Amino acid sequence: MTGIAKGGSSEARRKRLLFRAQRRGFKEVDLIFGTFAAREIATLDDTGLDALEALLDAPDQEVFAWLKGEAPVPPAHDTPVFARLRALCSRKDPTWNA
User: Fold this and answer.
1) Which is the most buried residue in 75, 80, 81, 87, by most CB within 10 A?
2) pTM, full prediction
3) What sign for the dihedral angle of Cα 25, 93, 39, 50?
4) Number of other CB atoms surrounding residue 95 within 10 Å
């Protein structure tokens, strides 16, 4: 689905998703998603934005368990975007946006 079909321009959608990524309510997940979105959202196509939005709709505790490898990632969320999020978490000495 295109950004226009989701209720706005592609740029407006990216801004909305960036805001949501930074303010999920679970500090660790806020930092992971916020850092990812700040660095990567401009590079995501509509499919990537859809995948990010689906992850933002998933419960925080579940996403955090998937990122830590404590629970299997459901096929619907096992996307290239999730792989990039997980790679962000596995960096040596990561820095996070506050």
Assistant:
1) 81
2) 0.81
3) negative
4) 8
